[in-house]
Amino acid sequence: MAKDGLPRTAVPSAFDTEARWYDRLVAANPGYHEHLRLSARRLGVTGPRLLDAGCGTGASTAALLSVAPDARITAFDASGEMLTRARAKDWPSSVEFVHTPVEELAEVRGPFDGILAAYLLRNLTDPTGQLRRLRGLLHSGGRIAVHEYSVQDSRRARRVWNAVCSGVIIPLGKITTGDATLYRHLRRSVLEFDGITALCRRLTDAGFVDVRAETVPGWQRGIVHTVTGTAP
What is the pLDDT of residues 56-85, one digit of tens each? Predict the structure, then answer.
């Protein structure tokens, strides 16, 4: 792990520490919530059972709810403090939150019709193995949408990402929270993660079919992507 990164096992506790500021910081990112809603729409599933894998403070859960208001949504995360923030928000009774890492999921029972996994894979020790685990929670024909940073395949995307991290994300994180560790990790983890070609191949290797990738509009074009796949 590079010096700016965190060990994968330390990431949930880092999010525990930063949870109180998380919503404020992502609100400063133009398009953050709209891009999550876009990925939820690209999932192409409206219920009756949906899974939000790595829900954080509930932004991705809200995105799913916006496109599938009648679905039963289970949302899980490894960070207890992020879940505390999520649970404190106003949700219908059809939404439930579970505290568990994706490596366990004992309390998450499928089958589901669709899964949204936002900003999750990059922070896992075995992304392909966990994608297989998630595929096992889907109906045959069920869909997954992976919403994730991917810049390896684009020199322009890497330049933009480095510039925004150096000039905005890391300084703002330091000013807001007093500690830039998680935000330096964010920069490094994105730079080291799969290119979009490798990410699509990872879903295929995990057993998904009809794998497709699309990016988002705005400054994160070519940086944030939705990769969708279907459980055979």
Answer: 999 999 999 999 999 999 999 999 999 999
* pLDDT tens per residue, range 170-207: 888 788 878 778 888 889 999 999 999 999 999 999 99
Q: 224: which 2 tokens?
A: 């944030």
Q: Can you tell me the distance from the alpha carbon of 112 to that of 143, in angstroms, rounded to the nearest whole number?
A: 9
Please give the backbone phi and psi of residue 143, each rounded to the nearest 5 degrees, phi first.
-120, 150
Q: In terms of C-beta density within 10 A (0-12 exposed, 13-18 middle, 19 or more buried), how is residue 204 classed?
A: middle
> Pairing relation of β-strands 209-215 and 224-230?
antiparallel
Nearest-angstrom CA–CA distance, 226 and 149? 9
pTM confidence score: 0.92
Are 115 and 28 in contact by the 8 Å Cβ rule? The answer is no
Buried b (16+ CB within 10 A) or exposed e, 184-201: bbbbbbbbebbebeebbe
